[in-house]
Specification:
Gyrase A, domain 2; 2 domains; single chain; 20% strand; Alkaline Phosphatase, subunit A
Length: 510
């Protein structure tokens, strides 16, 4: 009797294992919509009938997902998406920062040791990212059998989502009108990517007129440059045609790389950047933002239909989020501050207190790097100079808070949401010495709109999962986008991600 029960137990366990294996997705489709606030889902809900509608109906929708780092910018948001790591650990502290080792400004993906493929100039790589992504873990777990691809208009968006071991990251080059990559990944573009570029798909938008797809209270019209060339390619970024090109390139990649049709699970990370370029120009309340949101809904529907035909959506895990929101255009509630004012104020104060010299080596919208060589030359302590600079900046109108390196390292930050976000984002090797936060609705951009603050209009973003492993519904509990990566890793049967600080969203798992 005991032997029969034991045999039955073994059979049940075996069947459970087979069921779990069968439920593992063949493809992970990771989607980031650049500068897409959560309220765009609700404000334009009645206009959605394709991709967003499918996600909202059949997905697990989190209504209270907020970024927990600052600044809330593209590079950090994308690096967080599939790593789960905060800037303090990932090393991605901004789109750009001051590299003290070389005395130069670097970007999150700049790499002098690589060359651009498909265009002219220097390439890019994930070497500044200090942690693994889901794609890296997939490569390690399955002996490289997974295919991992990143695609965007922006290099940092394609690279930081796909990770170190990706089979390729591709982005749009406004100089050539091509999708390009880097010698970090391969010595020449794959034949399918080169063929895509050879057809010059960007040229078809020469002279195109952008009008609202769905009539609204406000109308607009934009005309693209009449002829193919650099002017057209640059204009494409801030038009719906940039997203169209990304989606078309993604279809080519899925087909050519046979994504979702391998022994191991594959991953494609796609970032739609035109929403961000448009939002920077006109702000969140412009009719162009409504229109690009509607067009994104239709484009996602097209992408989902393509993936369904090639792989079957029953075999696909879809995860959608955004890297940040955006502040309203300054009006009655806010205004603009020229960041050069911060540099001038700090410089004036430190010269007055400690003597002549170039005290500020770099300022990134209030992330201020001080001249350490000068501080040592004058036999001063860094904490003393930081405090003097911070004290002057606190007197600047519409500055909400100023934090210093010494204050952060000493554990003396305020224990509120802003203090925690600063702590989460501080990397000892790369972060600034003095960090300025502005009052709500005040921005450093002198034209258009921008993001980067700790306020909800910049931090509140969508997080939606959809797939056979996911329990559909609306989930109101507070989460962070850092929770996405460990949740995906658990679904795929991977171990804990190196550097991840997120939690598994177990509520949504069937």
């Amino acid at each position: 009797m005991f032997k029969r029960l034991f045999a039955l137990l073994l059979l049940c366990l075996s069947l459970a294992g087979l069921t779990a294996a069968a439920q593992k997705p063949k493809l992970v489709l990771g989607i980031v919509i650049d500068q897409f606030r959560y309220d765009y889902l609700t404000r334009f809900d009645s206009d959605y009938n394709a991709g967003f509608r499918r996600l909202l109906k059949n997905g697990a929708v989190f209504t209270d997902a907020n970024l927990i780092h600052c600044p809330t910018v593209t590079a950090i948001g994308h690096s967080t998406f599939l790593s789960g790591a905060l800037p303090s650990r990932s090393g991605i502290v901004g789109n750009d920062w001051y590299d003290r080792a070389t005395g130069k400004t670097v970007t999150s993906v700049s790499d002098d040791d690589t060359k651009l493929l498909g265009g002219a100039g220097r390439g890019s790589s994930p070497r500044r990212l200090s942690v693994d992504t889901v794609g890296d873990a997939m490569k390690a777990a399955w002996d490289g059998k997974s295919r991992v691809i990143g695609i965007s208009l922006k290099d940092r968006s394609a690279i930081l989502t796909s990770g170190h071991k990706a089979d390729g990251a591709y982005w749009f080059d406004a100089g050539s009108g091509n999708f390009v990559s880097s010698t970090y990944y391969f010595h020449e573009l794959p034949a399918w990517a080169a063929e895509f570029d050879r057809k010059k798909p960007a040229d078809r938008y020469a002279g195109a007129e952008w009008k609202p797809l769905v009539p609204g209270a406000k109308d607009f019209s934009r005309k693209m440059p009449a002829s193919p060339g650099a002017a057209l390619y640059k204009a494409i970024d801030a038009s719906p045609y940039g997203n169209d090109l990304v989606e078309a390139f993604a279809e080519s990649a899925i087909e050519a790389e046979q994504l979702g049709r391998h022994e191991a699970t594959d991953l494609v990370a796609i970032s739609f950047s035109s929403n961000d370029y448009i939002g920077h120009q006109v702000g969140p309340d412009a009719p162009e933002v409504r229109d690009i949101s509607i067009r994104t809904d239709r484009l996602l529907g097209k992408l989902f239909d393509f993936v369904d035909a090639k792989v079957g959506l029953q075999n696909v895990l879809i995860v959608l989020t955004s890297d940040h929101g955006v502040a309203p255009l300054p009006g009655d509630e806010g205004g603009r501050i020229d960041e050069k004012q911060f540099t001038a104020n700090v410089q004036e104060t430190l010269v007055k207190l400690f003597g002549p010299g170039d005290w500020v080596v770099k300022n990134f919208a209030g992330a201020i790097y001080l001249n350490w060589d000068l501080i040592r030359e004058k036999h001063l302590s860094e904490a003393t100079v930081e405090q003097a600079a911070a004290q002057r900046l606190r007197q600047t109108p519409h500055v909400m808070r100023v934090s210093t390196r010494s204050q952060i390292l000493g554990g003396k930050l305020e224990n509120d949401y802003a203090g925690r976000m600063i702590k989460n984002s501080f990397n000892t090797q790369r972060s600034a010495d003095v960090i300025v936060l502005l009052d709500p609705y005040w921005i450093t951009a002198l034209t258009g709109a921008t993001h980067g603050s700790v306020n909800e209009y910049d931090t509140h973003v969508p997080v939606i999962f959809m797939g056979p492993q996911i329990e559909p519904g609306t989930y109101a509990k507070p989460i962070a986008p850092n929770d996405i990566a460990p949740t995906v890793a658990l679904i795929l049967g991977l171990g804990k991600l190196n550097g991840s600080s997120g939690n598994v969203l177990s509520d949504i798992l069937k």
